[in-house]
Write a structure and sequence with these properties.
This protein has 263 residues and is of the alpha+beta class. It has 2 domains: 2-130 and 216-254, Double-stranded beta-helix; 131-207, no CATH class. It has 6 helices and 17 strands. It has helices at residues 12-23, 42-53, 131-141, 143-149, 190-205, 207-212, and strands at residues 2-7, 30-35, 55-57, 78-81, 97-100, 111-119, 122-123, 126-130, 153-158, 161-166, 168-171, 174-177, 214-216, 223-227, 231-235, 238-239, 246-254. Strands 1, 2, 3, 4, 6, 14 and 17 form a 7-stranded mixed sheet that branches. It has a 4-stranded antiparallel sheet with strand order 5-15-8-13.
Length: 263
């Protein structure tokens, strides 16, 4: 599932080409780029790289704009930066972040690109689990839950955007996933509410999920690109004593063809 590459000012174009080629292979879903130390302006470097990799989505959010429904900034990047002023916002807290997709409420959201400015914390790894691993585990651990997740339409809403899609969808021999417990619509019937609680409990407590989750810790200058709709990701808790001790930027890209709304 994971591909790791060295990245520098010299080989950026070649790495982008290699990544676009590998992107077409369904087994490759997480692409980690390790900086070799010669990247002078990290933000400028990865903004240029993002443009080479695909079509950029202006899906940035800013917690200072208000509550969850008005945080869409219209900018390219969202900050993922530890700041104790915002303890209830996962992007700015030091708490573990449950498994989810970034594009749960955004139509045609293909992948997430994230780069690191600073990370001197203990913990704070980004975690990933392949959608196929979820299917394989559910098939034996809870086939009834699997059946419901592949048949029930689920509405996610946030920042004025809404997306209606099954949590798990099979398409072209691949499994696509759309899920964020904290963005599921509140306008649900009782059966849907039970399904939401049941799936979140499974993700938080299943031994199979824990066994199949991989962790990636980014150092300053590193980046990661991942197929948001073909895996779930989250974050391990971390220890920090000062603002921006863990500081990353992320954006949405269209590298491959996204799963359509009505699939």
């Amino acid at each position: 599932m994971l591909v790791e590459s060295k990245i520098s000012q010299v080989n950026m174009q070649a790495v982008c080409q290699q990544t676009q080629n590998l992107w077409q292979k369904r087994q490759h879903k997480v692409f980690v780029f390790r900086a070799n130390g010669d990247i002078k302006d990290i933000g400028q470097f990865y903004q240029s790289m993002a443009k080479q990799l695909g079509e950029i989505q202006m899906s940035g959010e800013d917690v200072t704009l208000g509550d969850r429904n008005v945080q869409r900034s219209g900018q390219l990047w969202s900050q993922v930066c530890y700041d104790p002023q915002f303890p209830n916002a996962y992007r700015h807290s030091l708490n573990a972040q449950p498994l989810h997709t970034d594009g749960s409420y955004v139509e045609n959201y293909d992948c997430t690109f994230m780069y690191c400015i600073r990370n001197s914390t203990v913990g704070g790894e980004t975690i990933f689990i392949d959608s196929q691993a979820i299917i394989d585990d559910l098939s034996t651990a809870d086939p009834e839950l699997l059946s419901q997740l592949t048949s029930e339409m689920m509405v996610h809403s946030r920042s004025g955007q809404t997306r209606k899609q099954k949590v798990l969808t099979a398409l072209n021999d691949s499994w696509f996933v759309n899920w964020n417990y904290y963005c599921v619509s509140t306008d649900l019937n009782e059966q849907q509410k039970q399904l939401v609680s049941r799936f979140q409990h499974y993700l938080l407590n299943s031994p199979g999920i824990k066994a199949n989750t991989i962790a990636v810790k980014l150092a300053p200058g590193d980046a990661v690109l991942f197929k948001d709709d073909q895996l779930l990701h989250g974050r391990n808790a971390f220890e920090a004593t000062e603002v921006a001790q863990r500081h990353l930027y992320k954006c949405g890209l269209q590298v491959g063809k996204p799963l359509g709304q009505n699939q």
